[in-house]
Amino acid sequence: MTVTTSTPVHKGIGGSPLRPDGTLKVTGEFAYSSDLWAEGMLYGSTLRSPHPRARIVRIDTSAAAAMAGVHAVLTSADIPGKKTYGLIADDCPVLAIDEVRYHGEPVAVVAADDLDTARRAAKAIVVEYEVLEPVSDMRRAAFDAESPRVHADRADNIVRYQPVRRGNPDAADLQDRVAVVVTREYEVGMQDQAFLGPESGLAIPTEDGGVDLHVATQWLHVDQEQMAPCLALPPEKVQLTLAGVGGAFGGREDLSMQIHASMLALRTKRPVKMVYDRRESFFGHVHRHPALMKYTHAADADGRLVYAKAQLLLDGGAYASTTDAVVGNAASLGIGPYECDDVLIEAYGLYTNNPPCGAMRGFGAVQACFAYESQMDEVAAALGMDPVEIRRINAVKEGSILPTGQRIEGPAPLREILDELVTMPMPPEPSLPEPGEPEPRTRVPGERWELPPGGYGNTTRGEGVRRGVGYGVGIKNICYSEGFDDFSTARVRLEISGGEPIASVHTAAAEVGQGLVTLQAQIARTELGVDHAVVLPADTQVGSAGSSSASRQSYMTGGAVKTACEAVRMEVIELARRKFPELLSDDESWSDIHLADGALHLGAGVATGARLLARLSDVLGTDVVEATREYHHRRTNPLDPETGQGDSHVQFAMAAHRAVVDVDVELGLVHVVQMDVVQDVGKILNRLSLEGQIQGGTAQGLGLALMEEIQTRDGLVRNPSFTDYLIPTILDMPPLNMRILEFADPNSPYGLRGAGEPPTLSSTPAIVAAVRAACGRPLRRIPLRPEQIALVEGYGDEGGEEDV
Amino acid sequence: MEFITADSWTDALRIKTERPGAAPIAGGTDVMVELNFDLRRPEALLDLSRIRELKDWDVVGGSVQLGAGVSYTRVIEELADRLPALAMAARTVGSPQIRNRGTVAGNLATASPAGDAHPVLLATGAVVEAESFQRGVRKIPVDGFFTGVKRCALEPDELIRAVVIPTAAGPQQFSKVGTRNAMVIAVCSFAIALDLDARTVGTGIGSAGPTPLAARAAERFLVGELDWDTLKVSEAAAARFGKLVAQAAQPIDDVRGTASYRKHALEVLAVRALGWIRGCA
Ligand SMILES: Cc1cc2nc3c(=O)[nH]c(=O)nc-3n(C[C@H](O)[C@H](O)[C@H](O)COP(=O)(O)OP(=O)(O)OC[C@H]3O[C@@H](n4cnc5c(N)ncnc54)[C@H](O)[C@@H]3O)c2cc1C
């Protein structure tokens, strides 16, 4: 479809209007969900399990309930309705029932006059546990028949097993073509979304016995759908409004405090606010699945893939969350954007007593991407080939068949992406201080040298520093997959106010920082030819918008807003035809009318001689035109459980990164000098927002490569704080040069391609490849740690040991 | 919790004697974290930030008398020539905001094995001036100040008035290994200070033991091996020095790094520091 106004509308599609929350966030004035307040409100607090696996022998809440200022102490016995919930399988208890299955599982909740009292009361609850041996090794969970089961009512610890079989990698006739075979094992640690705004919300009891919840979330309606049965209320008595979201990245897909605060509010008949602190936040949401992956790639002498095999284990932790869908992604995208006719992929999602894992930016495609990209480098090295060339040779294109049998519809310009990437300028040679020169300085314009590896730490003046370059490519599915109809709804209204046409847009789509509010207004401006567009607060008073996940909101809610605008436009034209039939002569058609600059025009655009017919203010007068529309993407199909065949995905998006790093190979410290990225987005809707997404995605991928890991031991979380869960700072993030390509997708609104996730995929393997190039070590586990990178053998039996 | 503001030093000392349970707060960059994490519930906070006597530094007889209220930022901006290693360490602390608030005295009283000022204070032979209302001033050499993990020699009625740090009489270095380019707690750190007049060597090791440590054997070894005119050492002696520094460490495995990596890194840092010192001759 093409844009209907040919003169670009001020602040419309393709422009970069500033986001309304930008200045407020920078100046600290933005109201986040943690800033909510209501007259007479109580504070909630949660008691969580100190054990990864234990039987609850007894809970005694009497001391806590007797404390002054405490209004309610609730356990699983007090859940009004259904006692479990979940996004795909409802296996997660609202509060632990008889057993705890992970460190930090909620056991009881308290409401009190103030936060301090609530926390002290939670501590005063006595819980007697019978501690059980946790299932903490996902390999055992998968394959050891002797392993305890995390859920006693299940036959095994497997949430989902999904094979993908295409051709036959073991066929004898393939072997003649094989020049190299590379088999390697890879590991990905547990990354956290590390959003800055902790879980928080305010539940207000309503007069009709329901509850209004103001909350930071990613999908209002799926929260409502899960909450209502647990609260024993009909859905319409559970109304949600989106509160200021301080980042999400998948970590707000699952419920956190929603039911707890609502239970407390219903019980106390008072508003109840819950805000996690940073430590609790690390226990309060799901993380990215850690992965153990074994890959075999075989290629012919020219570098063409002959066959590929992969086994991926994904640790889903104690409850199912979205593991099922994560496995679907890992399996279907398991060998990446490469053509290969003979493939066997086996992906397992597992239950363990580790922290629950679910959605995080990249969703199953990230882990696989680290493995298949490392493999492509290994194959290239074994053949003495250039890493970009091997990717070019095997790259998918329009019409390629993926291992699931799905044919890629529309452009898949991976070759074009790579060709563009290699033309981007490289950074100047390293200019570290000479040994013996005074201390290094930071990267200040005019200063002589770069920040060296070790940053501000003054650890090198060039000693041990080597430069490396690496590449990474990734492919991500956009929108929900495997038959899921994740539609979005938009209500658009056009009216005249103060003589000016105003479009208002109402959806339930969650602005989580990605710029969706801005985009909805841009679409309305472009489609209705108005300057003034307002986006109403997101709530459940309008139909579902689906989740702000899977890079899907520009596509889906963008599509819904566009469709609703088109309906409004038709009605406006109909109104014009009825009110002013004389506007057009007999040989002119009402369907050629376009809206622009607050008026109806015949023909598209002034440049092509469009004729102004009437101002919107004259056509509408006091009439209000409103339309509500659902937007559905094209249908997809489930993967066959035996063969993994099926057209499971809506759309594919790809990006490629080049990373240039300096590594202190003796200390194992890394400084990323420069990153370059090329991404195809189909159509740029808002360049500024888009660049922000690419920056952020790249940074999150850098974090996974170099530092971000929730460390657990026997199921216990060891670093639930920003002191020891490190995320990149501005000094870790290098200059990022971008080239954005626009190969329009014929099926999507404006030809756009979802853009939020792909840069998170390819950034990680590019950086790791660059570090490998610098230090010469295999580095098969991420995040990299200095002791892995350091070339020098260390002390004792651990230092410098590698995972060969 | 009560918040008490002391207007003068005597005032502060008196309050601390009357209420030993009150926690002094200078920059607050440790205290506030402990309160937020509910690691500590002191009966009161005693605010020292208004006390003029603590806000300055002075040079007294070849040493810098660093008032307990002087921020890291001021150490960097005003004392980089007199106390180069302390300024280097200060530059590695936290972020600009933390450096604007945080103080060396606060670092000392927290007594974390990872405190970045500590290796420098050990290497330079600094002295902590503690004072109590009733018993007056007590001078505690830094190598006797740290008594255990997050424990120090301060008595409940004592406050740190100043830290006395000898003005550099030779090259000094401080290096810190962290897994992020800034805002990171040390995986390990190393400081060295040479006194060219007295021909002595001081060292300090951070984040590799229950307390900050000095590598005494390494210091003695280097005094003998160093050509004090050119500041050269043989490669073999430099290597040995590195090993001796590593041997002095007592690290453990934790979320920030392994014990063996810490030893390895300390050896690398010590050898490099010798190279840089040579460049200063
Ligand atoms: C984000 C962040 C990053 C950090 N990064 C680093 C880092 O890189 N390196 C590092 O070493 N530290 C770091 N810290 C810790 C902290 O900043 C330092 O320890 C700092 O030196 C503390 O100084 P302060 O003045 O803020 O102390 P405060 O928090 O005010 O006090 C610390 C302790 O000292 C006591 N105290 C304060 N003044 C006196 C006095 N005059 N007499 C007796 N007792 C006193 C207090 O009661 C308290 O026990 C970081 C902290 C944060 C929050």
UniProtKB/TrEMBL annotation, chain A:
Gene3D superfamilies (UniProt xref): Aldehyde oxidase/xanthine dehydrogenase, a/b hammerhead, Aldehyde oxidase/xanthine dehydrogenase, molybdopterin binding domain
Keyword Oxidoreductase among record annotations: yes
The keyword Oxidoreductase is annotated on this UniProt entry: yes
Basic and acidic residues bias (residue ranges): 438-450
InterPro entries: Ald_Oxase/Xan_DH_a/b (IPR000674), Ald_Oxase/Xan_DH_a/b_sf (IPR036856), Ald_Oxase/xanthine_DH-like (IPR016208), AldOxase/xan_DH_MoCoBD1 (IPR008274), AldOxase/xan_DH_MoCoBD2 (IPR046867), AldOxase/xan_DH_Mopterin-bd_sf (IPR037165), Xanthine_dehydrogenase_dsu (IPR017609)
EC number: 1.17.1.4
Pfam families: Ald_Xan_dh_C, MoCoBD_1, MoCoBD_2
Molecular function terms, GO-annotated: iron ion binding; xanthine dehydrogenase activity
Location of the Aldehyde oxidase/xanthine dehydrogenase a/b hammerhead domain: 27-133
UniProt keyword terms in alphabetical order: Oxidoreductase
Region (Disordered): 1-20, 427-462
NCBIfam families for the chain: pucD
Name used for this protein in its record: Xanthine dehydrogenase subunit D
Gene that produces this protein: pucD
Automatic annotation (TrEMBL), chain B:
SMART domains for this protein: CO_deh_flav_C
Gene3D superfamilies: 3.30.465.10, CO dehydrogenase flavoprotein, C-terminal domain, Uridine Diphospho-n-acetylenolpyruvylglucosamine Reductase, domain 2
Domain of life of the organism encoding this protein: Bacteria
InterPro entries: CO_DH_flav_C, CO_DH_flav_C_dom_sf, Diverse_Substr_Oxidored, FAD-bd_PCMH, FAD-bd_PCMH-like_sf, FAD-bd_PCMH_sub1, FAD-bd_PCMH_sub2, Mopterin_DH_FAD-bd
SUPFAM superfamilies membership: CO dehydrogenase flavoprotein C-terminal domain-like, FAD-binding/transporter-associated domain-like
Claim: DNA-binding is one of the keywords in the record: no
GO function terms (MF aspect): FAD binding; oxidoreductase activity
Residue ranges occupied by any FAD-binding PCMH-type domain in the UniProt entry: 1-170
Keywords: FAD, Flavoprotein, Oxidoreductase
Protein name: FAD binding domain-containing protein
Species whose genome carries this gene: Actinospica acidithermotolerans
Classification lineage: Bacteria, Bacillati, Actinomycetota, Actinomycetes, Catenulisporales
